[in-house]
Design a protein that fits this description.
alpha/beta; 105 residues; three-stranded parallel β-sheet
Length: 105
């Protein structure tokens, strides 16, 4: 277990360097939750790295995100952990700026 020390609606994504959207049996709940959707879109709009794991990989298409060097989808985090670490070290993906203007976050 990982202790929870914050909430999406109390700590905006801009306060973090990256986001990992974990796998689980709640894809439909996640898709219907405005706070969760805004959190992911805000992270994307602020050019930060995002990882979608397992069933949450479907959110890339659902949210109409453009794949790039800081957007990862995988069933196994270990497959992309080095690339994700590098994306965090780069802090932001400035190439994404040209595609985020229309995102309402």
């Amino acid at each position: 277990r990982i202790p929870v020390d914050g909430r999406q609606n109390g700590e905006p994504s801009v306060t973090y360097d990256a986001v990992i959207v974990i796998d689980g049996n709640n894809l439909e709940v996640f898709k219907a939750d405005g706070v969760s959707k805004h959190y992911v879109l805000e992270t994307y709009k602020h050019l930060k790295p995002i990882v979608f794991l397992g069933d949450k990989c479907a959110l890339i298409d659902e949210f109409q995100l453009t794949k790039d060097a800081a957007l990862f989808s995988t069933q196994n985090f270990k497959e992309i952990q080095d690339q994700f670490k590098q994306a965090i070290q780069n802090h932001r993906l400035w190439d994404r700026e040209k595609v985020v203007a229309a995102i309402p976050a």
